[in-house]
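hi!! sorry for the late reply, been swamped w classes. u asked for the two structures so here they r. pasted raw, havent cleaned anything up. first the sequence of the first protein and right below it the tokens
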Amino acid sequence: MINEIFEALLYISSFFTSFWILLQVFYFKTSLEISIKEENKLSEIINNKEEKEKRKIDIIVAIKNENEKVIKELIDNLSRLDYEPYEVIIVSDDTEEHFNKIIQYIGNIPNNIKIIRRQNNEGRKAGALNYALNFSNGDLLVFLDAEARVDKKFLRKVAELNYDAIAFRLKIREPITPTQKTYAYMTEFVMDSLFKSRQKLGLIIFPNGSSFAVKRSVLDTIGGWKNGAIAEDLELGIRLALNNIRVKYVDDIIIYSLAPFNNVDLYNQIRRWAYGSAELFISSAKLLKFGLKGFEGFIYTQQWAIYPLYLIILLITLSLQFVLKIPYSIILGSLSLIIFSIILYGVLIRPKGDYRSAMITTLASLIGYVEGILKMKFNWKVTPKELDKKEESILGIKILGLILAVSAYVNSLFNNIFSSILLILISISLLLLQF
């Protein structure tokens, strides 16, 4: 009976992972069909000039353990915006010592910019964003990350729009390292395939915490951000969808952000996203009530589980082969669907970048999602904004590699040579990935 369960799991997981890969191919091809005219079209604008001028916009940024230089550059960037009236509210969860260091480094702070330190750091980033709302009276709220940079006319463009909630295009600035260049390419791909094309298809758009705007009245209606959520932007997007509030993706308003410098930084970031996605499994399943569109939304919110889904089932199956004794024809049959979808993805999309970053992303998704499902303790690590030439090894991948090596040895004791060879090859690949 247990053999049949694992055989079914191999094919089910193979289907879902392949389905998500092929779905991204479809999204990408759809994005290529969108004309430049469609990309730059800003519908539902406010036509009344006086009404536009009266809209007060507040920009809210939550910070913790950020370099003081990053905060000064943020303030310099946001202080030059060509729009009135607007305010910037920066909420710090830093220690008093680091907060004072930031204030001293910044020097003169413009009158329309507030920097506030929270005494009680409950609720993680979402808690800080909710705290900022106590100091805000803007009609429209824009949420940015500390490393986000915008052009001078950013708020003028935002004021032209009349949507309940808005997601903007992210673009990576100044990619230097191989990891950053891969990340920059993937960000462009995501914006085109998972945002621009899904917007055209009328699917559910989920906000990005680095570049998101929402009407104050709408945010108040759904109860603000959820304190403690790891993926606070995704969680908010699910509640917006469940309350029939549409997020509009606007492709021609760009937020310039930074990418992780190395694979350790990338691993920590993807692991956090995957952990947050796992926390939201039950709430995202509620989207299924919207039928096919809701199913697609559920798949999107759980993508960090779907990427490595087949891999984890395959590794478990190979590790337990001395007990399961599943025919290798079934294992290879399930693997063939994955190989087909990856080949098709490569031929039609022709992805660029460092293969190590792709492997790191898959493994971080696997480890982070499992940690989230098991509700293991999570320590939030801020992605560094400066290059650290010393790249540490990733403990989670080391542990996984060692577990697979032990599994290979156990299988060899039962003469499961094929499983042992595959497991030891994967184990060696994981351990070499650290160098």
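now the second protein. again sequence first, tokens right under
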Amino acid sequence: MKALAVVTSSLFEEIDDNNKHLLSIDGLQIPLAFVKGTKPDFDSQSDQCADLVLIKKSSFSLNYRDLAIIEMAWYRLKSVEEYTYYPIGSDFSGYVEAVGKNVTSLKIGDLVIADCFFPEAKNGVMPGIPSNHSSREYEIYHHAKLLKVPSNITDYEAGTLSIGTQTATSMIRKGDIKKGENVLITSITSNTSFFLLNNLWDKDCNVYGLSYSGENIVAVRNHFPFIKDVFSIKENNIPQDVMFDVVLDAFSDTYLERLIPKLNSNARYVTCGIFNQSNDKITTAKPTNLSMLIANLMMKNVSFIGNCLGSTQDLIDGLDQYKNHKMVIDKVFTEEDSLSDFISKSYNLDGNKFGKVVYQYANDL
């Protein structure tokens, strides 16, 4: 069984170059590598496994949130001398290999992804992302944390979908977009924004984009031709007469203060994250005048809406969108490719990524 993991320095030295990579996060050099583990035991007739499902992963992908988890794991492991590791990964697809005796919603051979329903518990199961270790080739989940994938979605596509689809569909639902409204998507080339845009093809509204760097704007507009215009923070080129009714924002600490003057009265500002997640970024970030920020929002009756993941129905509705419009996949990596190439492409270290990046395991079923 394979897994992508943060590893101790001693273990890193023993792994071949094709299967390891030093990831730079704010001056830290964090060793990542593919490691071999043991397939978990699973007795489908036991009471202990009655509500559980054994999954053989088909694919997985990395998200922005994984960077904070990688950093956290390294702080725990960097002083450890023996061989050990911490598996990473948030999104996955996999095939059901075995089910517990109480499981009726899934059967052997079904292709599934994580259901990250939040904030309510379901079937007595905690809400949220079910695993921070989803690169593990085999893993056991409660059946309530899994959703069968529609037949129009391939196993490698499915490995990119759970978190982004559930989040984007929930954000759009909370944004309550009305006919003819101006909707702004920030960080227009980010994965989160691609998920949002994929859900906006058939909305009767005016969709605009905002980029921090201004890179890849032409490619985004070509892929999503319904976008009316894309603006750049660096160029400060949002026209004076363009105001927004809804903002869907992945990085509120980057954009919120800048965009308040461009919000209409009664606008909805929906955000699902912050950019400053690493320890260094958090401690060095420029402080915000919270009183002034809130006052400016109140003066326009702006609704500031935080969003974490979404409901099971959000995930189902989001997956249904892929019948007509596929998620953008930049590249599919396999064991023949180097881990460095996979990590570099996943986190756009070369500045040429367009869409999600996925790693596909060999399918032995």
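hope this helps!! also noticed smth abt the second:
The mean pLDDT is 93.
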